[in-house]
Amino acid sequence: MAVFETRQNNIVLKGIGVSPGIVTGRAYVLDYTDVQIPHYHLKTASQASEEARRFRKAIRESKNQLLSIRKALTEEQGLDPLFILDIHMMMLKDRSLIHNTLQNIREKGVNAEWALRMTVDRYRQAFNKIEDSYLKERISDVEYVEQRLLRNLVGKKKETISEIQDNVIIISRDLSPADTVQMKMERILGFATDIGGKTSHTAIVARSIGIPAVVGLERITHEVRNDDTVIVDGCDGFVIINPDPEILKRYEEKRRHFHQLEQSLLKEAKLPAITLDGHRVEIGANIEFVEEIPSAIEHGADGVGLYRTEFIFINREKLPTEREHFLNYVRVIEGKGMKWSTIRTFDLGGDKFVSDAKLAKELNPVMGLRAIRFCLQEIELFKVQLRAILRASAFGKTRVLFPMISGVEEIRQVKKILQEVKKELEDENVPIGSDIEIGIMIEVPSAVLVAGALAREVDFFSIGTNDLIQYTLAIDRINESVSYLYEPLHPAVLKMLRMIVEEGRQAGIRVAMCGEMAGEPAYALILLGLEINELSMHPMAIPRVKKVIRGATCAESKSLLEKVIKMSSAAEIEDYVRKYMASRFPENGAEEKERECIAEEK
After folding, report:
1. Which of 220, 282, 290, 548 is deepest in the core (most CB within 10 A)?
2. Closest CA to 266 of 517, 592, 546
3. What is the fold of 269-601?
4. What is the DSSP letter of 41?
């Protein structure tokens, strides 16, 4: 929930900081999502034919506009065509979207704009039922394509970011990745939007190109006017409209401090994460798109610790082909500068295939037919992905990661299928990698309790703390009513983490962590004390986590862990650890103090 408060000349809004950095500048309100949609009924067959023609024309115009964006990116900025543009192009070709809209025109007897809105409303209802926050936010792409089509239908010219001539902060209801990749760094200082989340495409692309951004502000487009002075604090998620001189001065100091710290961190980012007493931690990057790899390398990633493959399946009428899978995985695996790539098989359930009406909806998809459970039921679909991963493994060091394994029987079934696929490829004389490693996500309590048996079946563990904490503490982390109970330093969670690492060590396999907990600098010493071998996180978090590791010892970390793991409450542990880290690492302490000052002012 966004918070609004007026203090003298200031309007302070709180959203979600998704791309770090602090910037002050003039607001440019990009108001192109609020299209007035006409609604009228058709009286004759010829009118219906004319509406269908208008809709098809809008499809063509929208395709041509996206093609122009691709061409401009390639020619002016030297960028390869971005995958997200291909996704929007595919959506414009989606037979379900086209067929349903034309059907609404004919059978409901309504104009093309209203028929399209009816179609998208059905998509919206389906996405609203999805529990997974990352997948739920994919509706923004559907809405972006809808708005482009509506603009062309009503004949209203769409403003484009590439046409902006001045240095400004973009204010909008939403920004698609197709918009953000057109931003020219010398003109666009940052942006703030009404909607969006940490896992939205906008957030991902903004982080990858280094633009400060705050999303989820709910009504910023109603509060800001063109040429207002705006501060965007992408670190802590604040936006301040028309700040007074005192606030401007404070944020300028904060901006300088942030910039100096970032430059200092980047200088050392590519150094190995080795403690003062010689213990090394491998650092991986969590990515959704190939375009994030350059940023991951710049920020010091050793390899791809987690490549999420769900997006390949979303917003399409037909399931992806083996070739489509293969081309995606090859681009990740052969990425220059990466020592290894971990490809996670898709974590989808029946409720997430919104284009396939035959797949049943579930009342509780988070704990239903999803991830590896779905794969073991839809084996042919699973084999298509496995074939593509194995083929791509010939191009670089590859690890295959299987999500939501709850027991030994599941991983044995998976290994059997994997062997069948390998045999098929060998019979076809298709080359595959010779040193492929297989691992499992440890993210359900049952897997923790049988970790010893699971460790004997695989080459590595990867702890998915997001779900493990959710399942262990019986809370829905995206439910605002209980989200306060999501406590990574809960004693039960810490004891589970220790159990996983100990079972992995006894079996002689590596233990990684790829959940959000891995990228929190305040938790770095606790994880170091647990002796986790690899931490994988969003690229932007890597330099800070590395700095903590390089400035600590294993002995210190183990001492801290032993002290807090005996405490009885999560609040007590969290308070102690954060105070300890603020004292031990002054840079982090300064940032915490700055946050407290801002909170007091509000």
Report:
1. 220
2. 546
3. TIM Barrel (3.20.20)
4. B
Which of the pair, 434 or 366, is modelled with greater confidence? 434
The answer to whether residues 448 and 499 touch, using CB atoms and an 8 Å cutoff, is yes
**Around Cβ 340, how many Cβ atoms within 10 Å?**
18
266-284: burial string, b at 16+ Cβ within 10 Å, e else: eeebbeebebeeebebbbb
Question: Residue 322: which pLDDT band, with cuts at 50, 70 and 90?
Answer: very high
Q: Helix, strand, coil: what percent of the chain each, to 5?
A: 55, 15, 30
pLDDT at 397 over 90: yes
pTM metric for this prediction:
0.67
486 vs 498: CA distance, rounded Å? 19
Task: Please tell me whether residue 191 adopts helix, strand or coil conformation.
Answer: strand
DSSP string for residues in 357-396: TTSPP-S-GGGSSBHHHHHHHSHHHHHHHHHHHHHHGGGS
369, pLDDT greater than 90: no
pLDDT, position 411: 97
| DSSP states along 258-295 | HHHHHHHHHHHTTS-EE-TTS-EEEEEEEESSGGGHHH
> Distances in Å between the alpha carbon of 262 and those of 22, 97, 339, 584, 601?
12, 45, 25, 19, 26
SS3 category, 425: helix
Q: How far apart are CA 557 and CA 102, in angstroms?
A: 63
Instruction: Evaluate the CA torsion angle 409, 414, 415, 417 in order and state its sign.
Output: positive
Q: Residue 139: its pLDDT value, please?
A: 77
Domains of the chain: which residue ranges?
Answer: 3-31+159-263, 45-154, 269-601
Rg of the chain taking only CA atoms, in angstroms: 25
- Per-residue tokens: 340: 């290894």
Whether the per-residue pLDDT at 5 is higher than 50: the answer is no
Catalytic residues: 201, 514
The more confidently predicted of residues 316 and 546 is: 546
Is-contact 2 142, C-beta < 8 A? no
Note the Cα 310 to chain centre separation in Å. 11
The average pLDDT across 12-21 equals 88
Task: Report, at the CATH architecture level, how domain 45-154 is classified.
Answer: Orthogonal Bundle (1.10)
CATH topology of domain 3-31+159-263: Glucose Oxidase; domain 1 (3.50.30)
**Distance (Å, rounded) from C-alpha 364 to C-alpha 362?**
5
* Region 130-142 average pLDDT: 73
505 near 529, Cβ under 8 Å? no
Q: What is the pLDDT of residue 211?
A: 80
Q: From 230, 224, 304, 360, select the one nearest 539 (Cα to Cα).
A: 304
